[in-house]
Amino acid sequence: MRDRNFDDIAEKFARNIYGTTKGRLRQTILWQDLDILLASFGEKKLRVLDAGGGEGQTAIKMAERGHHVILCDLSAEMIARAESAAAEKGVSDNMQFIHCAAQDIAQHLETPVDLILSHAVLEWVADPQALLKTLWSILRPGGALSLMFYNANGLLMRNVLVGNFGYVQQGMYKKKRRTLSPDFPRDPQQVYSWLETAGWQITGKTGIRVFHDYLRDKQKQHDCFDALTELETRYCRQEPYISLGRYIHVTAHKPQSKDNL
């Protein structure tokens, strides 16, 4: 098994993910959480790592707020797109771009970071625990992790609702690897267990797109976007809706070491 590189479909990725209501909604709900997370640091300007940051939408917004952001990605094409977007927004001085897999970022950093963003990466890597181990190693004690992953529960629910019974019954095995459908959907309980076993303290869980993708009338995703966003916001941080989100966003902290207490 190999990690996914988006060099070959970067344009399709940008168009089909970020250029849709599902991309807009994902960013809206994600930033509700990130605003709260950033507020917990006070007025401090943070050293932020966006591990597998793609085209840099979230990283650039962080840089616009004055934080220093390091973006790494396995795809050279994604790095190039992120650099171009950062230049257009005038935040290049607040950013650093590193062409490498997220699992290899430790060798490129001289000092730990305050905040790690890892969004829609865990479902593309063959060894997720190795990635989480790396992220732990480069985060300072007291720092925070923002982890968003593709939810296997949501994938199952969506396929049952559209009648793909055979696909579900055979385990939702993905035959074609060169698509935008993630290679390794993650079981939420397993992800939570990985984090807690490693020492992370989970502080928040949010379902991303808990209703949007299940609408029978797809036109309502566009026509009723504001009302849908309000409902998503109202229910996305409570069960059973968290566990039905197409993605789940987890915030976690690395405990302070005894020396820092």
UniProtKB/TrEMBL annotation:
Keywords from the UniProt entry: Methyltransferase, S-adenosyl-L-methionine, Transferase, tRNA processing
Catalytic activity, reaction form: 5-carboxymethoxyuridine(34) in tRNA + S-adenosyl-L-methionine = 5-methoxycarbonylmethoxyuridine(34) in tRNA + S-adenosyl-L-homocysteine
Residues involved in S-adenosyl-L-methionine binding: 26, 52-53, 73, 102-103, 119
GO molecular function: methyltransferase activity
Gene3D superfamilies to which the protein is assigned, alphabetical: Vaccinia Virus protein VP39
Domain Methyltransferase type: 49-146
Xref: SUPFAM superfamilies: S-adenosyl-L-methionine-dependent methyltransferases
Taxonomy, superkingdom: Bacteria
CDD domains: AdoMet_MTases
Keyword S-adenosyl-L-methionine: yes
InterPro entries: Cmo5U_methylTrfase, Methyltransf_11, SAM-dependent_MTases_sf
EC number: 2.1.1.-
Keyword tRNA processing part of the UniProt annotation: yes
Biological-process GO terms, alphabetical: methylation
One Pfam family it belongs to: Methyltransf_11
PANTHER family according to UniProt: TRANS-ACONITATE 2-METHYLTRANSFERASE-RELATED
UniProt similarity note: Belongs to the class I-like SAM-binding methyltransferase superfamily. CmoM family.
HAMAP family for the chain: tRNA_methyltr_CmoM
Function: Catalyzes the methylation of 5-carboxymethoxyuridine (cmo5U) to form 5-methoxycarbonylmethoxyuridine (mcmo5U) at position 34 in tRNAs.
Protein's recorded name: tRNA 5-carboxymethoxyuridine methyltransferase
Chain's gene name: cmoM
